[in-house]
Amino acid sequence: MCNRFKTGRFTYKKGFEALGAEITRVHGYIHAKSDKLKGAEIPLGFPSVGATQNLMMAAVKIPGKTVISNAAREPEIVDLGNFLNKMGAKITGLGTPNIEIEGVEELHGVEYSIMPDRIEAGTYVIASLITEGDLKIENANLDDLGVFKSELESMGVKFEQEGNILSVIGNLKELKTFKNKNNASSRLPNRYAASDDASSDTCKWFKFNGRNSI
């Protein structure tokens, strides 16, 4: 297992220890082992997407009930939970801060279509705005963009959804700048932050050079 237990940020270690795993660090690598795992109540110090996902996947076949509090609520969490439930898992509370998992003995194979990649869609949106292009994204869900969509709309960007086609409308010279206050409560993915800053900085450049009136 690679070293992803960063102090104050990733809460994998405490979560898996609560489930009964023994976690050690050797030469920069994390080793996990357990004779027997058990359901537990796991309060996350930070609503980490990765920790929530890994603990959900571990808990589905662990005897007893596992409760993850302060869980991540991103669409990917809901999608993973729906996938696991379709395989026979018993997960409730998806999309809320408290996720409950009742362990089952077996899971079964299923056919499942995962959600579109909203990070990729958001990156294309920013690229379109910066290059002043017209963009239509196939198989993108506007609702999945969440806070990212709201922030761009506050800048003056308009979105149109027709079926599975998402259109992005925005004139860079007319967009307003904004301050990116990315934190856990905003639910803005960290991978969007750089793109958001790039679009906002580009707006500032146009305004600084007087090009917003062109």
Would you give an account of this structure?
This protein has helices at residues 12-18, 49-59, 75-86, 118-130, 146-155, 190-208; strands at 22-26, 29-33, 41-43, 65-69, 90-92, 98-102, 135-138, 158-162, 165-169. With 214 residues, the chain is α+β, with helices and mostly antiparallel strands. The strands form three sheets. A four-stranded mixed β-sheet has the order 3-4-6-5, with helices on one face. Strands 7-9-8 form a three-stranded antiparallel β-sheet, covered by helices on one side. A two-stranded antiparallel ribbon has the order 1-2. The longest helix has 19 residues, at 190-208. Mean pLDDT is 81; it is low at 1-5 and 205-214.
What are its keywords?
3-stranded antiparallel beta sheet; disordered C terminus; 214 residues; alpha+beta; 4-stranded mixed beta sheet; disordered N terminus
Topology:
Elements: H1 12-18, E1 22-26, E2 29-33, E3 41-43, H2 49-59, E4 65-69, H3 75-86, E5 90-92, E6 98-102, H4 118-130, E7 135-138, H5 146-155, E8 158-162, E9 165-169, H6 190-208
Parallel strand pairs: 3-4
Antiparallel strand pairs: 1-2, 4-6, 5-6, 7-9, 8-9
Helix pairs in contact: 2-3, 4-6
